[in-house]
Design goal:
Chain A: Belongs to the GatB/GatE family. GatB subfamily. Chain A is built from 15 helices and 16 strands. By secondary structure, chain A is of the alpha+beta class. Chain A folds into three domains: 6-303, no CATH class; 312-431, no CATH class; 440-497, Orthogonal Bundle (Arc Repressor Mutant, subunit A), CATH 1.10.10.410. Chain B is globular, with a radius of gyration of 21 Å. Helices cover 38% and strands 13% of the residues of chain B. Classes of the chains: A alpha+beta, B alpha/beta.
Chain lengths: 498, 493
């Protein structure tokens, strides 16, 4: 149970949240036409006759978009509807050339599924929670109006017109802004793992309609508002925060929450009415007669299933159970596609170089990847050339460290040079003298001298003052100018002092 | 040379192929006939250069000994619902007046690829909505036929009224039509020519201005069953650009023609004997039965019990789809734009659509919008779809007992232009016999049977099993051979 509550004048209020996430399907072509979909192209350069709704033009479903929706459904463990259908949602707007959007109201392609959000103390999520997903359907995006091109006219850019979207509709299962934020992040990760959406919220590849209502804990759901087109995780959380408090104020002041569509203003962090229920469109949905129902064959489904990668939850469990990583490290490493991809490449390279199994070096590699390497990178700032951050180079450093040839500090120093100037870590270590001395002869010589010079301390140690061991280590390291292998120093000191 | 215009598709194709005349001679003859027939108002624009260029290409091919194509050297009329590259395509509407597509519809392209040329774009009821060709923005089309002893202009039927008028008047040997609820068959019947609507999906809808997508089908209109077979072969075929296109090979219908109906059963649906049907129509139906019996067929009674609900269901489904299909004509991207001073987007929509659509189109958009509205959808659209399923089931059951169905095409012969304008319901009833086959997506054809006492043509309709255009054509051919319909209208234009 979430403990997030709005403190109202009449007591505590619980907030109820459902999200409709629109995710642009990764595909070279639009949902029903062959036109391209790249972001940022010149206006109206990616428009086919179909997208411009020229007379007599017909939609033909793009199989790749359907495949991506099915794979996404499988990734949230959802029911895949082998029979689905397209419906027309009719309304007039200048960015909607057909005068209707082709969507799926009555028979969506994906049915009920679910998504796990993980406990996160810091974010205020006490325990793991499963969020229900109602459905996923595919639909066309609209074009874009440009109001800043002419003093009295608006221009229309149809590049986005007809681009495939998945609308992923959650159940009203979230109870705090943190849960909603975690849901969006997790959904984004899954989409990116699957490769069905690039999850780029800045470019509009992912945006959310945020449904919020409030109630006294344990009571029936209140009236909800829907805030449209929110395009970042932070904004989603702000909308909820703002809407929940606004609704509590309205109710506690004797008013009623209107079921309405609202708009978010990122500048002020507030929402305002876009249209009320009375102004709601009658979309006159009906089955699109240009399109036959989609009937998915078992072969197609099997191919979709086989093409799914290891998903975030499974990967996290494997990192913990098979690689022996801490839950924190496992979660951090699996949160983003790039992170785990880099980690797994480095892990393979390091294990090979070191000559041990992946599980035996995983913790070392994880610590390197999550804390050491980012620390070095950060300290270098602009000087870091990330092209030098190859798995090969990093594995080389890790291998030297594993063999005791370099210390942790030296590893950082070498990596710093690698990032800044490039080069092979092994050579750098040699050339810059960044190696520990493991030559027992030299260390013994130094230790013999220290023992000879500190007879009194040796006596004290031998008579039980164990703490002095540190003094001897320090003296030895000093004599060795910090380059002695601490493990070797320890061993020889122990032998000689006993 | 004037005799050339009396020739049909097969005679022209064969004559060009064997060198009796050149394709250019044919094109010139028809171009001249088109130019001289402006009183019929069958064409919105003539395209003599297109016809000549195609003819010259065919003649050049013949000189080189190359294959001339299924329609080699045949100039045809193109219903102005088909997008033709570089040639104005209006759907007989003001809102698309002057619209010149940069693309060619699949069906017209197929015809050009088969060696046909275009005489011009044929008039029609606006957006194919109408049964008399009186809703065109470009004026009524007159039938070449007159009622004996009168001089009133008669309706050529609709919506393919320009097509029927032109073919009956011998200013085109053949023309394309489209049939949503009888728009090929009814005008064919009114003007004494043949017309076939194939199985839904045979002809691509790509590039055809949409009226009601789940019903629209293109088909040929010509003066003989053979000509229809030839032209349908050229028009049909799978098109990956139309998701409802049939993924089937096009049969060799012309080669397969066989008027011997021995072993075939022809069903006579008792529900088509409706009140208000003209006695002479019923008589010609009886005659048709005898002809088919004579051709070797067994005549059996069948029942299509949901027939009386078909027309009301059609007038829900078709307007519903039309109301959505016509939403794209909004003044934003092409066609008419009416932007009053200081107007906003909504004002522009209202002004453009008010000025751009005719009354019948507006009537159907209103009906369609109404039946799809929240609270009415289930009572109208859902019910209509159920009826549609039942109508299709009726046919499926009837086809358990017979191979094809014979019925009248229309309840009456042609009527004078202007006589039914005030009464949309009576006008709609014209398609009562045509609509059931449309709802079921079945191939259906009208062939001329006889002239009535007023000297006006009457047609008989054959409805076939899905994909059995051959059976329909064969039955039509059996009627054609026995009817011996060779009447032609007296030239008054």
């Amino acid at each position: 149970m979430s403990s997030y509550r709005i403190q109202g004048a009449t007591g505590e209020w619980e907030v109820v949240i459902g999200l409709e996430v629109h995710a642009q399907v990764t595909s070279n072509a639009k949902l029903f036409s062959g036109a391209a979909t790249a972001f940022g192209a010149e206006p109206n350069t990616q428009v086919s006759l179909v997208d411009a709704a020229m007379p007599g033009m017909l939609p033909v479903p793009n199989r790749e978009c359907i495949r991506q929706a099915v794979r996404t459904g499988m990734a949230i463990e959802a029911e895949i509807n082998t029979y689905s259908r397209f419906d027309r949602k009719n309304y007039f707007y200048a960015d909607l050339p057909q005068g209707y959007q082709i969507s799926q109201l009555y028979h969506p392609i994906v049915g009920e599924g679910q998504l796990l959000i993980e406990a996160d103390e810091k974010a205020g999520i006490a325990e793991d929670k499963v969020i229900g997903i109602e459905r996923i359907h595919v639909e066309q995006d609209a074009g874009k109006l440009m109001h800043d091109q002419h003093p009295t006219m608006s221009y229309v850019d149809l590049n986005r017109s007809g681009v495939a979207l998945m609308e992923i509709v959650s159940k009203p299962d979230m109870r705090s802004p943190a849960e909603a934020g975690a849901y969006v992040r997790k959904l984004r990760a899954i989409l990116r793992y699957v490769g069905s959406c690039d999850g780029n919220m800045e470019e509009g590849s992912m945006r959310a309609d945020v449904n919020v209502s409030v109630r006294k804990p344990g009571e029936e759901f209140g009236t909800r508002t829907e805030t449209k087109n929110v395009n970042s995780v932070r904004f989603v959380m702000q909308v909820i925060e703002y809407e929940a408090n606004r609704q509590v104020d309205v109710i506690e002041n004797g008013g009623k929450v209107d079921q309405e569509t609202r708009l978010f203003d990122p500048g002020t962090g507030t929402t305002r009415t876009m249209r009320s229920k009375e102004d709601a469109h009658d979309y006159r949905y009906f089955p699109d007669p240009d399109l036959l129902p989609l009937e998915l064959e078992e072969d197609f489904l099997a191919e979709c299933r086989a093409s799914l990668p290891e998903l975030p939850d499974a990967k996290r469990r494997r990192y913990e159970n098979d690689l022996g990583l801490t839950p924190y490290n496992a979660r951090e490493l699996t949160a983003e596609v790039e992170t785990f991809a880099r980690f797994e490449t480095l892990l393979a390279a390091a294990a090979a170089k070191i000559g041990k199994g992946e599980a035996q070096v995983a913790t070392q590699v994880a610590n390197w990847a999550l804390s050491v390497a980012p620390g070095v990178m950060k300290s270098l700032g602009d000087e870091a050339n990330m092209a030098n951050a190859t798995a090969e180079a990093q594995a080389g450093i890790l291998a030297m460290q594993d063999k005791g040839e370099i210390s942790g500090g030296q590893a950082k120093e070498i990596y710093e040079i690698v990032l800044r100037d490039g080069g092979e870590p092994e050579k750098i270590a040699d050339e810059k003298g960044l190696k520990q001395v493991s030559d027992t002869g030299a260390i013994e010589e130094a230790i013999d001298a220290i023992i000879a010079a500190n007879g009194d301390k040796v006596e004290e140690y031998r008579s039980g003052k164990d703490k002095l061991f540190g003094f001897f280590v320090g003296q030895t390291m000093k004599a060795m100018q910090g380059k002695a292998n601490p493990a070797v120093v320890n061993q020889i000191l122990k032998d000689k002092l006993s | 040379m004037t005799e050339l215009t009396n020739l049909g598709v097969k005679a022209i194709r064969d004559g060009v192929a064997d060198g009796t005349f050149t394709a250019r001679e044919v094109a010139e003859a028809f171009n001249a006939a088109v130019a001289a027939a402006s009183e019929l108002n069958a064409f919105i624009v003539a395209t003599p250069d297109h016809a000549l260029a195609a003819a010259d290409a065919v003649d050049a091919k013949r000189a080189k000994g190359e294959d001339l194509g299924k329609m080699g050297g045949v100039p045809i009329g193109m219903k102005d619902l088909f997008a033709t590259k570089g040639v104005q395509t209006t759907a007989a509407s003001h809102i698309l007046e002057g619209f010149t597509p940069e693309y060619e519809s699949t069906v017209s392209q197929n015809l050009w690829d088969a060696g046909a040329g275009m005489l011009g774009k044929l008039n029609l009821d606006q957006f194919a909505m109408g049964s008399s060709n009186e809703t065109s923005y470009f004026g009524n089309v007159a039938s070449p036929w007159k009622k004996d002893g009168t001089n009133a202009a008669m309706s050529p039927g609709g919506s393919s009224g320009g097509s029927s008028s032109a073919v009956a008047a011998r200013i085109a040997p053949a023309a394309t039509g489209t049939d949503t609820g009888g728009s090929i068959r009814q005008p064919a019947a009114f003007t004494g020519i043949c017309g076939i609507k194939p199985t839904y999906g045979r002809c691509s809808r790509w590039g055809v201005v949409a009226f009601a997508s789940s019903l629209d089908q293109a088909g040929p209109m010509a003066r003989s069953v053979e000509d229809c077979a030839i032209m349908l072969e050229a028009m049909a075929g799978f098109d990956p650009k139309d998701a409802t296109s049939l993924q089937m090979d096009v049969p060799a219908w012309e080669a397969g023609l066989d008027a011997d109906l021995k072993g075939k059963k022809i069903g006579i649906p008792k529900e088509y004997r409706m009140d208000g049907t003209d006695e002479e129509i019923l008589k010609s139906w009886e005659q048709g039965k005898e002809w088919l019996h004579d051709a070797g067929a067994e005549i059996v009674d069948v029942s299509l019990p949901h027939t009386k609900y078909a027309l009301p269901a059609y007038y829900i489904v078709a307007p519903a789809e039309a109301s959505s299909n016509l939403a794209r004509y909004d003044g934003v991207r092409y066609g008419l734009r009416d932007l009053p001073d200081g107007a906003g987007l909504q004002d522009m929509y209202a002004a453009t659509r008010a000025a751009g659509f005719g009354d019948e189109v507006k009537r159907r958009i209103l009906i369609g919008t109404y039946v799809l509205s929240a609270g009415f959808y289930d009572a109208y659209y859902t019910q209509a779809q159920k009826i549609r399923t039942l109508v299709a089931k009726d046919f499926a059951q009837a086809f358990g007992q017979c191979d094809a169905i014979l019925a009248p095409t229309t309840p009456t012969a042609s009527f004078p232009l202007g006589s039914l304008n005030e009464d949309p319901l009576t006008m709609y009833l014209n398609d009562v016999f045509a609509v059931p086959a449309s709802l079921a997506g079945l191939p259906a054809m009208s062939v001329p049977a006889t002239l009535n006492a007023d000297g006006l043509p009457l047609g008989l309709q054959i409805v076939g099993k899905p994909f059995d255009e051959q059976g329909v054509l064969d039955t039509g051919l059996a009627i054609q051979q026995r009817a011996g319909f060779d009447a032609k209208p007296d030239k008054w234009w």
